[in-house]
Write a structure and sequence with these properties.
two-stranded antiparallel ribbon; mainly alpha; single chain; two-stranded antiparallel sheet; 4 strands
């Protein structure tokens, strides 16, 4: 894979400092849920841009009545990570509308801001990114494209259409993708489940602790176990709805985007 370019040097520097230089004191659980919530917030933002694109007079490419919306691998990012970390994209992939970049349907600052959305990354352990890829290939990529198309082809109030696309398409499809990814991962080698004693002398004790510890020393088994945990945390991230999807927030953003 070639080196991905950064679309905006100023934002790239800010993101590098914020996420690579500023140390975050949080547990793996908090990081995974934060990553999932950040992805949901970015998806919500892109859906609002889709509502702006469908409005007339934006000065960019004309939108066809029945656009073909697809999602492919990311092409740009604000920075790279090092060591055991990888720069995991927050969005599931690069959206294309009739094989054109979505920001080409806008002009000026809105176009620049939309392009930036596809470059945001999170420097996290490689297993987080591996869990991302599992969910993406099990339906999350197609779900992202479907949610964007739902907004582009709807004709109701923007805040209602964006909310419907988020809740009915994105949330439903993304959770299904996470479940499918978990099902795939459970076919791989995993540590044995904990066995607890039920007798008088061993009640509540872990009876297979040594066996489980030995399994955890296997790198493949450990990675599979950690990725399975990440997917569970990503599911938990959907318990909180991003503020970006609230009607007043959608209207406020659109008022600043639409010419």
């Amino acid at each position: 894979m070639g080196r991905r370019r950064s679309p905006d040097r100023a934002v790239s520097g800010q993101e590098r400092f914020r996420l690579l230089r500023v140390e975050r004191f949080s547990s793996d659980t908090e990081k995974a849920i934060w990553h999932g919530r950040s992805r949901n917030a970015r998806v919500a933002k892109v859906l609002v841009y889709m509502a702006a694109i469908r409005m007339p007079g934006q000065g960019g490419l004309p939108l066809t009545p029945n656009p073909n919306v697809t999602c492919k691998g990311a092409e740009q990012q604000f920075f790279s990570a090092s060591g055991e970390n990888e720069a995991a994209h927050l969005l599931p992939g690069q959206i294309l509308i009739d094989n054109a970049y979505p920001w080409l349907f806008l002009q000026g600052e809105p176009a620049r801001l939309l392009q930036n959305e596809f470059a945001y990354v999170d420097p996290i352990h490689a297993n987080y990114n591996a869990a991302d890829r599992l969910a993406e290939r099990n339906g999350m990529v197609d779900t992202f494209a479907a949610a964007c198309r739902a907004v582009l082809t709807s004709a109701g109030e923007p805040e209602r259409d964006v909310s419907n696309a988020y809740h009915r398409v994105w949330v439903t499809g993304a959770l299904s993708a996470i479940a499918a990814a978990e099902h795939e991962l459970r076919s791989e080698p995993l540590p044995p489940p904990l066995v607890y004693g039920e007798g008088v002398e061993d009640y509540g004790m872990i009876l297979n602790l040594e066996e489980r510890s030995q399994a955890m020393n296997d790198e493949e088994i450990w990675n599979n176990f950690e990725q399975l945990s990440m997917l569970d945390y990503y599911r938990a991230a959907f318990d909180e709805t991003p503020s970006e999807i609230e009607p007043r927030a959608i209207i406020a953003v659109l008022s600043g985007l639409v010419r």
